[in-house]
Design goal:
Chorismate synthase, AroC fold; alpha+beta; 11 helices; five-stranded antiparallel β-sheet; about 375 residues
Length: about 375
């Protein structure tokens, strides 16, 4: 089955290519009578859009969203039928790829696409471009609205923790509870001011030399109750891992204490003891990251994602073409020197999609 859809009961299908006329998503299984706030969806897309700062690609897209179906025209409420959200591309420059469209770009999806389909959209990478994530972010913005109606205290927040060798100090990272507003206050989307300044300097230096940088995004979800997820193949952390690793450039995922806790601690020190607090069952530590046995336990869900440096760099590289020749590639065009600032809302959107689907698996479409 083609891998353009995500979710079970709350299911999205994204469509469109990077340099095609439009891009977007179809959401199937959305509950009826939800007050869909398209202004809030637009805010999410604006956080993801290119051209928003000197740290990202200068491609000038406003990413205005339009709803084509699934809403009552008078009230704006969802009908319970498929919702189509679309964004039109307005600043494509396919000519930037014309001179070297026959060359397989290092660490891109070009060769894999040819091997899989025998054809590829070389203009901007087609479906393998991060521009595909517009549909995910639009759908995730709707999913968060549904979640907030059920769980008013829910807060989904991601932020840039590290770029290259600049990271938030561990003493601050362990105690801080960051908000989306704090992350968005700086164009790096790092909520720690001193680290944000260092990251900005590093990204601009990489950009000026035609290079790129990778790093780490952290995610914290507060206010999601216990009892959601499944105990075997559809464990909540497994679905979150699939969601995050499906984001372009994401190469690593862990939950809770992650690799460090699994490798460096023993069972006695790693376990999270239960304790009743004001009539609620909680744990006195949270090394499980809010998920135990594949099911949420009511504690904050915490995840960490590693993103690789952007594959397109503006210096000559050894490569090969589709005619059997070894060649030198000199890439050009408009690219993010670091994907992490714009990946933050994508991480949040994918988390919202997983949680909304988990909600509906337990409650059904008429929540």
């Amino acid at each position: 089955m083609p891998g353009n859809s995500f979710g079970s009961l709350f299911r999205i299908t994204t469509f469109g290519e990077s340099h095609g006329p439009a891009i977007g998503c179809v959401i199937d299984g959305c509950p009826p009578n939800i007050d869909l706030d398209l202004t809030a969806v637009q805010r999410w897309l604006t956080r993801r859009r290119p051209g928003q700062s000197k740290l990202v690609t200068p491609r000038d897209e406003k990413d205005h969203v339009q709803a084509l179906s699934g809403l009552d025209e008078e009230t704006g409420k969802t009908l319970g039928t498929p919702i189509c959200l679309v964004v039109h591309n307005t600043d494509q420059r396919s000519s930037s790829y014309g001179d070297w469209h026959h060359i397989y770009r290092p660490s891109h999806a070009d060769y894999g696409y040819d091997a899989r389909y025998g054809i590829r959209a070389w203009q901007g990478g087609g479906r393998s471009s991060a521009r595909e994530t517009i549909g995910r972010v639009a759908a995730g913005a709707l999913a968060e609205q549904i979640l907030h109606q059920q769980f008013p205290k829910l807060r989904i927040c991601a932020w840039v923790h590290q770029v290259h060798d600049h990271s938030i100090p561990e003493e601050a990272a362990e105690t801080a509870v960051y908000t989306r507003e704090q992350a968005d206050a700086h164009p790096t989307r790092c909520p720690h001011p001193e680290t944000a300044t260092a990251i900005e300097t590093a990204i601009l230096a990489a950009k000026s030399s035609g290079d790129s940088l990778g790093g780490i995004i952290r995610l914290a979800i507060h206010g999601f109750p216990a009892g959601y997820g499944d105990p075997v193949f559809d464990k909540l952390e497994a679905l979150l891992a699939q969601a995050m690793l499906s984001i372009p450039a994401c190469k690593g995922f862990d939950v809770g204490s992650g690799f460090g806790g699994a490798c460096a601690m023993n069972g006695i020190s790693h376990n999270d003891p239960f304790q009743w607090q004001d009539g609620e069952l909680k744990t006195t530590s949270n090394r499980s990251g809010g998920i135990q046995g594949g099911i949420s336990n009511g504690m904050p869900i915490t995840c960490t994602m590693a993103f690789k440096p952007t594959a397109t760099v503006l210096v000559p590289q050894d490569s090969a073409d589709d005619q059997g020749n070894n060649v030198t590639l000199q890439a050009k065009g408009r690219h993010d020197p670091c994907v992490l600032p714009r990946a933050v809302p994508i991480v949040e959107a994918m988390a919202a999609l997983v949680l909304c689907d988990a909600l509906m698996k337990r409650s059904g479409q008429n929540i």
